[in-house]
From TrEMBL:
Source organism of the structure: Bambusicola thoracicus (Chinese bamboo-partridge)
Record protein name field: Bublin coiled-coil protein
Acidic residues biased stretches: 20-30
PANTHER family to which the protein is assigned, alphabetical: BUBLIN COILED-COIL PROTEIN (PTHR34344:SF1), UPF0184 PROTEIN C9ORF16 (PTHR34344)
Region called Disordered, residue ranges: 1-30, 70-94
Amino acid sequence: MSGPNGDPHVTLGPAGRDGGDEDGDGFGEEEYAAINSMLDQISSCLDHLEEKNDHLHACLKELLESNRQTRLEFQQQSEQHSTGADMQGPQPPV
């Protein structure tokens, strides 16, 4: 149904028009079927991209929360370490 670039194979009659087109609108059933197929493919690709985007968004939120938690733990350890050093007072020279 599709060519190497995803373009539909549409056979045209004389003067570049579908030989079976009796309405005179320039499009026959093959053209409409090809357009519908391409729209279905586009819709499917967009759905897939939306799923990937949602998954990526969830992963990034998880990473952000993990980084926040790690930063808070590091700050708490740093505060405890500095508070512990202050309570011990200055160390006498050796």
